[in-house]
Design a protein that fits this description.
The structure is a single chain. By secondary structure, this protein is mainly alpha-helical. The chain is 73% helix and 0% strand. It starts with 7 loop residues before the first helix and ends with a helix.
């Protein structure tokens, strides 16, 4: 394989702008192969970084097109654009796989959503170049399932199952997604039914008020009645006080209005 050449490690250390298009493609494959080795050793985050560096080499078609202002004849040797796209798809697909592997290892909610979002984005980008890849649809569906996009995940798994009908893992996730969709629809119907019955609103409001209302316990019935009478007197006192406004207050209000 061309990335096993002795000069590949040195070539990989050089900046992109010093490499010819053919060398860029070689370095991308070499870095991706290093990422695969990290994945096999159970280091998805290290693999992700290597895959990202590999993608950087083949991310833009413009780097592999003829430019009239090039002076170095070596740079006119261009690899087929189909080969560039194939390598780009492999990098994107592996980035999605590394994101999902890192997701499986974390327990922190922000990290879970972050890895799932990356897996979805890289899968979508790869599918624009290769729509008939069952692995890409499957990885996209797994990411969508984590993000709570149940209906979209079911569609992605269905596409993966259509292309790889014998894969038990794909069938398993497809069944789970469809069951989740059914549960989601049932919950929506129950909510719509509750919203269409105004009496249920009152019941729920009463339950909520009772939950918020502090519960005061009394030592005896006499103490409870005495507390009620006290509250009544307080209400009457404040009511009578509000009806009669002191003259001094009225004068102050007149002065303010002037």
């Amino acid at each position: 394989l061309f990335w096993m050449m002795e000069d590949m490690p040195c070539l990989s250390e050089r900046p992109k702008w010093e490499l010819s298009p053919v060398e860029q493609l070689k370095v991308a494959a070499y870095r991706r192969d290093l990422g695969n080795a990290e994945m096999r050793q159970g280091h998805p985050e290290k693999a992700f970084t290597l895959y990202k560096n590999a993608l950087f080499m083949v991310e833009f078609d413009e780097d592999f097109e003829e430019h009239s202002d090039e002076e170095d004849a070596e740079h006119h040797e261009l690899p087929p654009l189909e080969d560039v796209h194939a390598e780009r798809v492999r990098c994107l697909s592996n980035l999605a796989a590394a994101s999902l592997a890192a997701l499986d290892e974390t327990r922190e909610e922000p990290s879970i959503e972050g890895y799932a979002g990356k897996a979805k984005r890289y899968s979508q980008r790869a599918l624009k170049l290769k729509k008939d890849d069952a692995k890409l649809w499957f990885r996209k569906g797994r990411a969508e399932l984590v993000l709570g996009e149940i209906s979209t995940a079911a569609t992605s798994f269905a596409e993966a199952a259509r292309m790889s009908p014998q894969d038990p893992n794909v069938r398993k996730y497809l069944q789970e997604a469809r069951a989740a969709c059914q549960a989601e629809r049932s919950a929506c119907r129950s909510m719509e039914k509750a919203m269409s019955d105004p009496s249920s609103w009152v019941d729920q409001q009463e339950i909520f008020r009772n939950q918020l209302k502090p519960k005061k316990e009394y030592a005896s019935e006499e103490e409870r009645k005495a507390d009620i009478e006290y509250n009544k007197r307080q209400l009457l006192y404040h009511f009578e006080k509000a009806k009669v406004q002191p003259e001094s207050d009225c004068e102050e209000q007149d002065e303010e209005q002037e």
